[in-house]
Amino acid sequence: MAGTPDAAEIFHAKCQLCHTTRQVTPSEREKLLGPPVEEVMLKVKEKYPIREDAVRFIADYVRAPSIDKALCPSLDRYGLMPSMEKTLTKAEAEAVAEMLFDTYPRGTVNKPASRKK
Ligand code: HEC
């Protein structure tokens, strides 16, 4: 299912602050705390096209981020994502991961130039 309301709420409350769902202008981009969700999911799906693998990756990553696991080329810009281990249970992380896989990318946000395919 394309994300329970719960997962969307969790994302809104705990992720969206850093991972905007909106299209950003270049000046807005400079103030972002993390990469837009659209870009994150493009990256994740490139590496993990299969839903199960992507969900496992995301659910693990958000509770234990590390440089070794990171797929994002923007690490230098934003620094490593803080661990959400204390704010998110494993089940919540999985629910959010499923919702993200089913929802993004929407294709409505400009891809960074280097990622245009
Ligand atoms: C305090 C800011 C912040 C919050 C809150 C946050 N993130 Fe992140 N996230 C980042 C940053 C910065 C990166 C890019 C660096 C990295 O990959 O660690 C990132 C990267 C990611 C990535 C890509 C990892 C990769 O391979 O590089 C995923 C997936 C992700 N976040 C999911 C989430 C989810 C889901 C939540 C909510 C449960 C969340 N984030 C909350 C800052 C945040």
Describe the protein's architecture and organization.
- The protein has 117 residues and is an all-alpha fold.
- It has a single domain, classed as Cytochrome Bc1 Complex, Chain D, domain 2.
- It is built from six helices and no strands.
- It is globular, with a radius of gyration of 13 Å.
- The N and C termini lie far apart (28 Å).
- 26% of the residues are buried.
- The model has no long low-confidence stretch (mean pLDDT 88).
- Which strand-content bin applies to the residues? under 5%
Which geometry do the CA atoms define?
globular
Gyration radius (Cα, Å) is: 13 Å
Span between N and C termini?
28 Å
The total tally of domains equals 1
Q: What's the CATH class label?
A: Mainly Alpha
Mean pLDDT over the residues: 88
Counted beta strands:
0
Q: Which cofactors or ions or other ligands sit in this model?
A: heme C
Please, how many helices?
6
Which stretches are low in confidence, meaning pLDDT under 50 for 5 or more residues running?
A: none
Sheet having the most strands: none
| SSE topology string | HHHHHH
Under CATH, the topology is which?
Answer: Cytochrome Bc1 Complex, Chain D, domain 2
